[in-house]
Amino acid sequence: AEAAAEQLRLYRRDADGWRGCRSTGEVAVSWRPSTEFAGNLYKGEGILPASPRDVWECIKPVAGGLRTKWDQNVKDFEVIEAISDTVSVCRTTTPSACMRIISPREFVDVVVMKQYEDGTMLSAATNVEHPLCPPQPNFVRGFNYPCGCFCIPVPG
């Protein structure tokens, strides 16, 4: 979990190579080739007219959280094992997509949540295997490289 958090901090600090691919009035999505796997990294950025605490409540990775209510790509989120107050092993499931051409997925990740002195909040995750969560029937087991969300306060 700590290694995933550090990787996300490195991505955030390294502005080189990001190329814009989509933008609306609210969100800008960029990508760049990954140095860890054969594929691309993606990041989405936007400013929301809300307090950092309110935004964090919507995105933080906790069982019973708001993410399953607003994010159509997250069907369920459960904690398999709470390792500490800030680190847990979690299972996230996604619904089928494209008229069921894409099967439902499940991801088992170790997740860490952090808050920094400047008020920034971070959730970082990466794939892990856990004996209490073997692959489930009717789901394709997905694999996450280090990923997560930053919630960064901005003036005003």
Automatic annotation (TrEMBL):
GO molecular function: cholesterol binding; cholesterol transfer activity
GO biological process per UniProt: cholesterol import
Sorted UniProt keywords: Lipid transport, Lipid-binding, Transport
Coiled coil: none
START domain sequence ranges: 1-156
InterPro entries reported in the protein's UniProt record: StARD5/6, START-like_dom_sf, START_lipid-bd_dom
Its job: May be involved in the intracellular transport of sterols or other lipids. May bind cholesterol or other sterols.
Name used for this protein in its record: STAR5 protein
Species this protein is from: Rhipidura dahli
Lineage, broadest ranks: Eukaryota, Metazoa, Chordata, Craniata, Vertebrata
